[in-house]
Design brief:
- Strand 2 (45-50) and strand 3 (56-62) form a beta hairpin.
- The chain is 31% helix and 35% strand.
- The protein has a domain at 4-99: Aminopeptidase, CATH 3.40.630.
- It has helices at 10-28, 33-36, 82-96, 111-116, and strands at 4-8, 45-50, 56-62, 67-73, 101-107, 120-128, 131-139.
- It is globular and about 40 Å long.
- It is built from 4 helices and 7 strands; from the N terminus they run E-H-H-E-E-E-H-E-H-E-E.
- The chain is of the alpha+beta class.
- It has a 7-stranded mixed sheet with strand order 1-2-3-4-5-7-6, sandwiched between helices.
């Protein structure tokens, strides 16, 4: 499978990133619509992954403070390495701008994925949008 990941601002990435997030978070995971969109989108670097036919199949964002969030891959494309490509693109964007570390709040079911990519668990499980999460951190050296 040929996957292409693009990075850019909200003005460029919005339509495709929103479509993936709407499907995964709002429709599939039942996150309230008003919790999904926030003012930070306009200040983030967004990654969107496209399949060989040019369909947006995954997304994630890098906030100005080094947090990675809104990582989502459409159900048919899960388990194919798209999440890893998105994550590494966002980590590299943070490294390129000089960030010393990246952080994220992982859904607990995704914790093993982030552990495989060098993230370390911090603190206790907490609830966000009715879903258990854990804070994780990865130094950039």
């Amino acid at each position: 499978m040929s996957i292409r990941v693009t990075l850019g601002g909200w003005a460029v990435q919005r339509a495709d990133a929103q479509a993936v997030r709407l499907e995964v978070f709002v429709q599939e995971q039942k996150v309230p619509l008003d919790m999904e969109w926030d003012e930070m989108d306009a200040r983030c670097t967004h990654a969107v992954a496209y399949d060989g036919e040019g369909r947006a199949v995954g997304t994630g964002r890098l906030l100005p403070d080094g947090h990675i969030g809104r990582m989502a891959v459409r159900k048919p494309a899960r388990g194919t390495g798209i999440g890893a490509l998105l994550l590494e693109a966002l980590v590299e964007a943070a490294r390129q701008r000089g960030d010393r570390e990246v952080m994220l709040n992982a859904q607990t079911q995704a914790e093993p994925f982030y552990l495989r990519h060098g993230f370390v668990r911090e603190g206790e499980v907490f609830m966000e949008a009715g879903i258990p999460h854990i804070h994780m951190r990865r130094p950039l050296t």
